[in-house]
Amino acid sequence: MKLIDHDSQPRDEWRPGVTTRMRVSAVTGSMQLCIFDQWCDPGLGAPTHLHAVEEVLTVIAGTAEIWVGDDRQTVTPGQSVIIPAGHKHGFRNVAATGMLHVQATLAAPIFEASYEDRHELSRRWVPQN
To answer: Coil, strand or helix: which one is 115?
Structure first.
């Protein structure tokens, strides 16, 4: 058994107004999951992208617009969206004020995403030693 102290894990700014804390991943010894939190300022979130694995997005606080393909839903605390592997999706904070807190679970221990916007570089979160 491995105990992980989430309060000691750093937050990283992934883009202006969006911070991320990796909770469970290859760096913590996970072999099949990546779980992380994101906090997004109003109007901000994750642009349209896709993963090779299934993902679950859960709203912890705030209100999100989450889209999968052309389907858009308003998602509130305590609700989750299951995103099939290979489907384009994204989310944003739709509140005028207040932070959106989303928890994401990916069926892989390393985060990888390819973005629809060619100006966004494909992202691979690789654990640091």
So the answer is: strand
Q: Which pLDDT value is given to residue 45? A: 97
Are 33 and 107 in contact by the 8 Å Cβ rule? The answer is yes
**Domains, the chain:** 13-114 (2.60.120.10)
> Quick one: pLDDT band at residue 59, thresholds 50, 70, 90?
very high
Query: Cα dist. 93→29, 34, 40, 45, 60 in Å?
Result: 31, 22, 6, 6, 12
Residue 128 makes CB contacts below 8 A (sequence gap 6+) with 27
CA–CA distance, 79 with 57 (Å, rounded to integer): 8
